Amino acid sequence: LLEHADKVARAADPRVTQVQVSLAGLNVTPEEIRQLAALQQLRGLDVSRSYLQSEHDGAIAGLTSLEHSHRSATGLTDKHLSWLLPLGRLDHLKLNRTNLTDESLKLVATFENLAWLELEAMRLSPDSVSHLSDLPDLELLSIRETGFNDACLEEISQMNSLRKLLIYKTAMSEEAVSAFLASHPECVVDH
Fold first, then answer.
1. Closest of 173, 82, 169, 159 to residue 116, by C-alpha
2. 30-43 tens-digit pLDDT
3. Cα–Cα distance measured from residue 78 to residue 176, given in angstroms and rounded to the nearest whole number
4. 3-state SS assignment for residue 51
5. Sheet of 19-22, strand order
6. How do residues 5-36 score in pLDDT, each as one tens digit?
7. Which residues, 6+ apart, have CB-to-CB distance to 167 below 8 Å?
8. How far apart are CA 155 and CA 149, in angstroms?
9. Which of 46, 118, 161, 187 is spaced 20 to 30 Å from 38 by Cα?
């Protein structure tokens, strides 16, 4: 995979404007991730279901051109979330089925370019959604299989840019969802 990606980068084909790399489920070394930095067009990296340690996080932090990152089901914890800090261009972030807590959402909320955020099957408290209400460009929010409730939906209603909300298996009532839809007809809600 890395050999092929290197060939693409070396070809410098003007038609190639961005590269997405999936290492999902693979056992990769931090050095292999660091090699991806040679891909100037690298915009997306999927390392979901991969076993990663803090050395991997440091290597990912060096990929400053990333706009999309998929870290689902990686055992990611609050302690290891610092890999996000240098990645200020992120607009798509998938953190499903990780061990992140409310503290992490404070950091996630600093990414003003986020348009797509997935937080499915996480143990977040209903209060944590307030950290996300300041994301000015958030268009998709997936909070399926969380403990988020009607009060969260009131907080989410402050997100004027939201166009799709995925809330399957939450504690949100049909009445609250109906009220949200009435006040946000431009938003599609999957519940």
1. 159
2. 998 888 888 878 89
3. 31
4. coil
5. 19-22, 42-46, 68-70, 92-94, 116-118, 140-142, 164-166, 188-190
6. 555 555 556 666 788 899 999 988 899 888 88
7. 143, 144, 148, 153, 177, 189, 190, 191
8. 10
9. 118
